[in-house]
């Protein structure tokens, strides 16, 4: 039994040991959370190990050309594995790897592709109840929804030129049925159960320490000040910039509200 476990672990390591294809990578520039003027525009960002960005095919627009999975690779920029696809015409592309996709498997993007993990096709041709990932919001613009580890949306219904999808957040939304989606649930389902183990690993990821507002001075945070330990001293918590939080709605009225059939679960 122990021997089988070791063999399985070595097999996984061999799968993930493949180096990224040079033509499909580019250096990821560090910002440190600062904008063009040098001011901190996003807090808690800094440091980070140098890494390459993998160019992912989110559009899946290589239609009716079959490809085979050459490798399943680790991507330092996302929590889900990526798959290197070798197409029969010689081109190589990266896609987000769904659960169950193995080296040697065949995938395709087509109007009426087989319903199996990794294949991409329009929502109108995907049966009700099928799990999908990497879903477009606007036809031809590339995948926007359900792109993280273990996530998927479920095709709930079809109505005219629209398909109803239950999204990972619990929201029920209408989408144009011409949008491309990939069949299956995304890989690395147990990612949320990982333990970073030490503070240094967080810094390697690029996350700087977060300090409580009540531990700051009044000039640095609205919750700051006071003698010793104290409450926030106000009826509603505030952000570092002084705006109310905790239940404050941040979504403004948008044209896309009409496509939301049921709001996300609280």
UniProtKB/TrEMBL annotation:
<comment type="similarity">
    <text>Belongs to the universal ribosomal protein uL2 family.</text>
</comment>
<dbReference type="InterPro" id="IPR014722">
    <property type="entry name" value="Rib_uL2_dom2"/>
</dbReference>
<dbReference type="InterPro" id="IPR022669">
    <property type="entry name" value="Ribosomal_uL2_C"/>
</dbReference>
<feature type="compositionally biased region" description="Basic and acidic residues">
    <location>
        <begin position="254"/>
        <end position="266"/>
    </location>
</feature>
<protein>
    <recommendedName>
        <fullName>Large ribosomal subunit protein uL2</fullName>
    </recommendedName>
</protein>
<dbReference type="InterPro" id="IPR012340">
    <property type="entry name" value="NA-bd_OB-fold"/>
</dbReference>
<dbReference type="GO" id="GO:0002181">
    <property type="term" value="P:cytoplasmic translation"/>
</dbReference>
<feature type="domain" description="Large ribosomal subunit protein uL2 C-terminal">
    <location>
        <begin position="115"/>
        <end position="244"/>
    </location>
</feature>
<dbReference type="InterPro" id="IPR002171">
    <property type="entry name" value="Ribosomal_uL2"/>
</dbReference>
<feature type="region of interest" description="Disordered">
    <location>
        <begin position="210"/>
        <end position="266"/>
    </location>
</feature>
<dbReference type="InterPro" id="IPR005880">
    <property type="entry name" value="Ribosomal_uL2_bac/org-type"/>
</dbReference>
<feature type="compositionally biased region" description="Low complexity">
    <location>
        <begin position="232"/>
        <end position="244"/>
    </location>
</feature>
<dbReference type="GO" id="GO:0015934">
    <property type="term" value="C:large ribosomal subunit"/>
</dbReference>
<dbReference type="GO" id="GO:0003723">
    <property type="term" value="F:RNA binding"/>
</dbReference>
<feature type="domain" description="Large ribosomal subunit protein uL2 RNA-binding">
    <location>
        <begin position="33"/>
        <end position="109"/>
    </location>
</feature>
<dbReference type="GO" id="GO:0003735">
    <property type="term" value="F:structural constituent of ribosome"/>
</dbReference>
<keyword id="KW-0687">Ribonucleoprotein</keyword>
<dbReference type="InterPro" id="IPR022666">
    <property type="entry name" value="Ribosomal_uL2_RNA-bd_dom"/>
</dbReference>
<dbReference type="Pfam" id="PF03947">
    <property type="entry name" value="Ribosomal_L2_C"/>
</dbReference>
<dbReference type="InterPro" id="IPR008991">
    <property type="entry name" value="Translation_prot_SH3-like_sf"/>
</dbReference>
<dbReference type="GO" id="GO:0016740">
    <property type="term" value="F:transferase activity"/>
</dbReference>
<dbReference type="InterPro" id="IPR014726">
    <property type="entry name" value="Ribosomal_uL2_dom3"/>
</dbReference>
<keyword id="KW-0689">Ribosomal protein</keyword>
<dbReference type="Pfam" id="PF00181">
    <property type="entry name" value="Ribosomal_L2_N"/>
</dbReference>
């Amino acid at each position: 039994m122990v021997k089988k476990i070791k063999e399985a672990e070595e097999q996984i390591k061999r799968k993930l040991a493949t180096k990224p294809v040079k033509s499909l990578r580019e250096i990821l520039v560090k910002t440190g959370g600062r904008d063009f003027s040098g001011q901190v525009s996003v807090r808690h960002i800094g440091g980070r190990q140098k890494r390459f960005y993998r160019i992912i095919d989110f559009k899946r627009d290589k239609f009716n050309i079959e490809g085979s999975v050459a490798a399943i690779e680790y991507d330092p920029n996302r929590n889900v594995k990526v798959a290197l696809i070798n197409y029969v015409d010689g081109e190589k592309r990266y896609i987000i790897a769904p659960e169950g996709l193995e080296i040697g498997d065949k995938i395709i993007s087509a109007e009426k592709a087989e319903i199996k993990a990794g294949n991409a096709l329009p929502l109108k041709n995907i049966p009700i109840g099928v799990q999908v990932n990497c879903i477009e919001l606007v036809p031809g613009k590339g995948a926007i929804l359900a792109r993280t580890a273990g996530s998927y949306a479920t095709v709930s219904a079809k109505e005219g030129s629209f398909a109803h999808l239950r999204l990972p957040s619990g929201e029920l939304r209408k989408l144009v049925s011409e949008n491309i989606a990939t069949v299956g649930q995304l890989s690395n389902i147990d990612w949320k159960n990982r333990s970073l183990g030490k503070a240094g690993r967080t810094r390697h990821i690029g996350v700087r320490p977060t300090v409580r507002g009540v531990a700051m001075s009044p000039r640095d945070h609205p919750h700051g000040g006071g003698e010793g330990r104290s409450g926030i001293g106000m009826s509603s918590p505030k952000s570092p910039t002084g705006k109310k939080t905790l239940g404050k709605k941040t979504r403004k009225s948008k044209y896309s509200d009409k496509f939301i059939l049921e709001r996300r679960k609280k």
